[in-house]
Amino acid sequence: MVARTTWPNLALQSIKLQNLSNDFARPNILDIKLGTQLYDEDATPEKKERMIQAAMKTTSLETGVRMTGFQVCLRNTTISTHPSGLTASP
User: Fold this and answer.
1) What kind and span of H or E run contains 16?
2) How far is 12 from 4, CA to CA, in rounded Å?
3) pTM of this prediction?
4) Radius of gyration, CA atoms only, the chain
5) DSSP of 56-74, one letter per residue?
6) Distance separating alpha carbons of residues 46 and 39, to the nearest angstrom
7) What digits encode the pLDDT tens for the residues 42-61?
8) How many angstroms separate the CA atoms of 81 and 8, rounded?
9) Measured between alpha carbons, how far is 50 from 54 in angstroms, rounded to an integer?
10) How does pLDDT run across 66-86, given as a tens digit for each residue?
11) Facing residues of 57 across strands?
12) Could you tell me whether strands 65-74 and 29-34 are parallel, antiparallel, or unpaired per DSSP bridges?
């Protein structure tokens, strides 16, 4: 869904995200980031530099695609990514 709004004399267009997995008991989910620029035009110079370094260390800069997380539900086990690595739980 595309949302349009006016914010102090500035017309903004953005994508409004919805929780499409809400109606599922055990959804399989894939989180990907698209694009080679990981920062907003209004980002501070420090954040721009951090995001440029992050893009250079991942597949974002070269391919414009990066998988950042997933959750797969298989019968009685859920496998997902976690900041410390992969996890599996009943």
Assistant:
1) none
2) 6
3) 0.59
4) 17
5) HHSSHHHHSEEEEEEEEEE
6) 11
7) 899 999 999 999 999 999 99
8) 40
9) 6
10) 888 888 998 888 888 876 666
11) none
12) antiparallel
